[in-house]
Amino acid sequence: IVADTAPAAPGSVVIPDMAGWPMREVIKQTAELGLVPMVHGSGLLSRQLPAAGQSSAKGASVELYFQPAS
């Protein structure tokens, strides 16, 4: 089995792919990972920085861009 991402270093987490998730679930997931959500827009997640699969230090902010569901 080949993992899509390398394991996160100690004190960091791997950012999950949350594209298409509703805002409430994305904010809950980022908080559970120890990250600080920075929310832009409303609706469903369309883009996130750092991108899915990248690692980020716990306590770091994650830019979350939402767009209304179509």
> What's the rounded overall pLDDT mean?
90
The secondary structure category is: alpha+beta
Low-confidence stretches: none
Q: What percent strand?
A: 25-35%
Topology as a string of helices (H) and strands (E): EHEEEE
In angstroms, what separates the terminal alpha carbons? 36 Å
Identify the overall geometry. elongated
Largest sheet, spatial ordering of strands: 2-5-3
Beta strands, count: 5
Helix content: 10-25%
Largest sheet: 3 strands, mixed
Tally of individual helices: 1
Radius of gyration: 12 Å
What does the model show?
The protein has 70 residues and is of the alpha+beta class. The protein is 14% helix and 34% strand. It has a three-stranded mixed beta sheet with strand order 2-5-3, with helices on one face. The chain has a two-stranded antiparallel ribbon with strand order 1-4. It is elongated and about 40 Å long.
Descriptors:
single chain, 70 residues, alpha+beta, 3-stranded mixed beta sheet, two-stranded antiparallel sheet, 1 helix, 5 strands, elongated
Secondary structure topology:
Layout: E1 12-14, H1 23-32, E2 36-40, E3 44-49, E4 55-57, E5 61-67
Parallel strand pairs: 2-5
Antiparallel strand pairs: 1-4, 3-5
